[in-house]
Write a structure and sequence with these properties.
heterodimer, A: 413 residues, alpha+beta, 2 domains, seven-stranded mixed sheet, three-stranded antiparallel sheet, 13 helices, 13 strands, elongated, B: 426 residues, eight-stranded mixed sheet, four-stranded antiparallel sheet, 12 strands
């Protein structure tokens, strides 16, 4: 039975090629856009290397000072992290990194622009880098402010033409570093892990950063388990609320421990005085945008399927005249729709892979490494199946209730 | 005729409803993208306010790790500096060092003039000030520049003057505003010499020297570039020899070079600066280059939206012509009957295209009712009603052209139907 359905579905697909192409184009295109959009989101938020312990990691990514009629928002300063975020209960490791800073080198007259990130040694234990050469710097290196650096693949190519770099030196921003390790490129949108050159925090040109409450640094807190998150958040909040502010014009300081997604939501939707982050609002925006986008292709698909089934009124009449039940007819249309959707889905999957590969190889986003999110692909496919069924079953059901004589006459209104 | 068309559309309301919904959605998508594009085009033709060629911007950062990007400062205008700092001493030292750096650069043969400023074009930095004047809320973009800034950047003075040594001993805070601010605050008066008096005076009440007084009006200073909406802009004065802590600071150096200067100048300038201030970090960029990068960032979302909606519209067009084609084949007998009763091929074509036009008219009326809420409720205050008007007109023309084009082939097919063929089976 199913085999004959499949056979019939295949024949129907080829009978009106133009319509099949339109339906496939719609399904395929919708899936590609959804896939590319989620690949970009994944690229920013998902736990991909080196941030493999993201499920256990909280960060301190933003700080806000609030005073009379004024506020200042930035990343936290080193002093804030050093004074309040160390030795929190439930935290296994605490790391500090600086925001990647653009620095220039002129190794042979030609300018090389790199992102320099200064970190402590814990940074390398919280994130999980795969070292292509050498290894990370140690607590000892940081304490001694040793001028050593870990560089990424791109930097190795730019400075040393891709040949082994460990033990060689490079100049950046007027400082000379000895390379001790090489890591793969981290996508530029991964604000925690990205960088071309990583150097110990203590190699900063002055120690002024140690006295700054605001700007320039991020903190990473590796909890023993996600169950410890509420306790860590509450403790940090209590500590910071009791903080002594250096300047009379500021009354409150605020620097929450949160996941990266929460911090982005906080930056987008946090008002001037508002302290809580609203991750659910960011979710709502993302989901609504995707649903709104799928609306037009869905209506298009429904429209096409309705018209196609009306066209087959006489075929349905014949089948009914020969004793086919409504159930059989509906079953047949379900199979036809599923075949169409699956073919479109397969094409969409292939096309998404091609588009993402093109984006990866283009220099649009440096070090991009977009991948297909299978989960989202299945959601998209599910959506296409849903609308396909909705649009196919309803008219089929209406048709199947027609009197055979009427249907044979082609009554389609 | 029109009433008859409405009746025909009504008779097939179930399938026509779906088509109308599809047209409505396409219309909304189309007007969103055209509004975006028209907004950019409208901004692009407005004056920029400064020169781009032969200008280099060097950002000078005192602490290697005190990141200067992505810092947002919101203030009500009562604090003049970009951010309050606990180390006043360091600020004054930094200012003195900046003065030395400018002197060092001035000695280079390629340099025509050099200045320092707080917020430079295309830098991505923002400093805004919200103040209330006479019960009305005003938001200004802010920057601060040294006395040579206007000359170096080629700012066009409309009235008054830029900052000079004259302002050294003034009993107020001299500011230069752009034309928009002058028109908004002093529509009837000559803005030069006027005080900007806030309702809620913070520092200004305590210290009369903090009252802002306009000394000059510039044409424009659109620091975010060609595609950004023009905004209110106010300049503070930077005095590098100022020993007070809480006055405006400059973080960027701007240089106007002589004609014929090559890119090799950059390395030499950075070397001079690194020599003078080994603890600082410098990033140099020709303004034309940072403009290219910035414009790319502005265009990227528009390009992405345009590509996606182009595909959407192609999909809709194909779907619509397919559906209309099927409708025509279903209505063969009706068309045959009309032909037999004496309707010409042109009549048939007119009827079928007319039905689609009626459908589109219904859909766009609903669409307009929705879209007109945006300018009325001022959802995007930067977008002017003029931009909305132009883009809605463009989208209307496009959507009618699209649906009529989709109806054209099916209507032609219908018009060649022979009455005898169509009625044969009856």
């Amino acid at each position: 039975m199913l085999r004959s359905y499949l056979k019939l579905a295949w024949r129907v697909l080829w009978r009106r090629t133009f319509f099949t192409v339109i339906s496939l184009f719609g399904i395929c295109f919708t899936l590609v856009v959804l896939m590319v959009a989620t690949a970009v989101l994944d690229h920013i938020f998902a736990p991909i290397a080196p941030e493999v312990r993201q499920a256990r990691t909280l960060g301190i990514y933003r700080a806000r000072m609030i005073g009379d009629h004024r506020s200042q928002t930035s990343m936290p300063g080193y002093q804030l992290l050093d004074t309040y975020a160390r030795n929190l209960p439930g935290v296994e490791r605490m790391g500090v990194y600086s925001m990647a800073q653009t620095v220039y080198s002129y190794p042979s007259g030609q300018r090389i622009t790199s992102l320099l990130k200064r970190t402590d040694a814990e940074f390398w234990r919280i994130l999980d880098f795969t070292f292509l050469e050498g290894g990370p710097f140690t607590d000892q290196d940081v304490a001694n402010s040793a001028f050593v650096a870990v560089i990424n693949q791109t930097t190795r190519d730019r400075f040393f033409g891709g040949s082994p770099a460990v033990g060689r030196t490079l100049e950046a921003d007027g400082q000379r570093f000895r390379v001790i390790g090489v890591v793969p490129d981290v996508p530029i949108l991964r604000l925690v892990g990205n960088g071309d050159i990583y150097a110990p925090i203590t190699t900063a040109k002055t120690d002024g950063y140690r006295r700054q409450l605001m700007s320039g640094f991020g903190g990473l807190l590796l909890a023993k388990s996600p169950a410890d998150f509420p306790g860590i958040k509450a403790e940090l909040e209590t500590r910071i609320r009791a903080a002594q502010l250096p300047d009379k014009q500021w009354q409150r300081l605020f620097a929450p421990a949160e996941t990266f997604f929460e911090s982005i939501a906080g930056n987008l939707f946090g008002g001037r005085e508002e302290e809580r982050s609203h991750p659910e609002r960011l979710w709502a925006v993302i989901v609504t945008a995707m649903l709104l986008f799928s609306l037009l292709p869905a209506v298009n698909l429904v429209n096409l399927n309705m018209s196609r089934i009306m066209e087959r009124a006489s075929e349905i009449g014949v089948r009914k005249a020969f004793g086919a039940s409504s159930h059989t007819l509906i079953g047949q249309f379900i199979v036809e729709n599923l075949v169409l959707t699956l073919v479109g889905g397969a094409a969409g999957f292939g096309l998404s892979a091609l588009v993402l590969r093109a984006l990866n190889t283009s220099s649009l986003i440096p070090h991009a490494h977009f991948t297909i999110n299978i989960r989202v692909f299945l959601y998209g496919l599910g959506l296409a199946v849903f609308f396909g069924l909705l649009s196919g079953v309803y008219p089929a059901w209406r048709m199947s209730r027609l009197h055979p004589v009427q249907a044979l006459k082609g009554a389609s209104r | 005729m029109i009433r008859h068309l409405f009746t025909l559309v009504w008779n097939r309301k179930r399938s026509n409803l779906l088509i109308a919904v599809e047209v409505l959605l396409s219309f909304i998508v189309l007007s969103a993208v055209t509004t975006f594009a028209v907004f950019y085009a409208d901004n692009y033709r407005k004056p920029l306010g400064f020169d781009v060629d032969r200008i280099w911007v060097i950002s000078a950062e005192a602490h290697a790790s005190a990141g200067r990007t992505s810092m947002t400062v919101e203030s009500d205008g009562s604090d003049k500096a970009a951010a309050a700092t606990q180390a006043d001493r360091e600020r004054i030292d930094r200012r003195a060092m900046m003065a030395q750096l400018l002197l060092a650069l001035r000695d280079l043969p390629e340099v025509e003039s050099v200045a320092a400023a707080a917020v430079t074009p295309y830098g991505g930095n923002t400093w805004t000030s919200d103040i209330e004047i006479g019960g009305r809320h005003h938001r200004f973009g802010m920057s601060a520049g040294t006395d040579d800034f206007a000359r170096t950047m080629g700012l066009e003075m409309l009235r008054g003057r830029w900052f000079t040594r004259e302002d050294d001993g003034s009993a107020w805070r001299p500011v230069v505003v752009n034309e928009r601010v002058a028109r908004e605050l002093f529509p009837a008066k000559d803005p030069v010499g006027q005080f900007i008096v806030e309702d809620r005076q913070g520092h200004a009440a305590a210290n009369p020297a903090d009252r802002m007084r306009i000394v000059g009006v510039i044409r424009e200073y659109r620091k975010d570039g060609e595609y950004a909406a023009p905004e209110n802009f106010v300049f503070d004065r930077v005095r590098l020899d100022d020993t007070r802590a809480d006055v405006a600071d400059a973080r960027d150096i701007v240089i106007r070079v002589r004609p014929g200067t090559t890119a090799a100048f950059e390395e030499r300038a950075v070397a001079v600066l690194r020599n003078a201030a080994p603890e600082w970090t410098f990033q140099a960029e020709a303004l034309s280059q940072s403009r290219d990068t910035a414009l790319q960032y502005w265009l990227a979302p528009l390009t992405a939206a345009a590509v996606v909606s182009l595909f959407l519209l192609v999909m809709v067009a194909m779907g619509l012509s397919g559906v209309l084609w099927l409708h025509v084949t279903q209505r063969t007998r009706e068309v045959g009957l009309r032909r037999a009763k004496g309707a010409t091929a042109v009549d048939i074509r007119r009827q079928l295209v007319g039905e689609v036009v009626v459908l589109t008219a219904i859909a766009t009326t609903v669409g307009l009712a929705i879209l007109v809420q945006f300018p009325i409720l001022e959802v995007f205050s930067a977008v002017s009603p003029f931009v909305y008007g132009v883009s809605l007109a463009i989208s209307l023309v496009c959507i009618y052209a699209l649906t009529m084009a989709c109806a054209w082939t099916p209507a032609r097919m219908a018009s060649v139907i022979q009455p005898a063929d169509a009625l044969r089976y009856e």
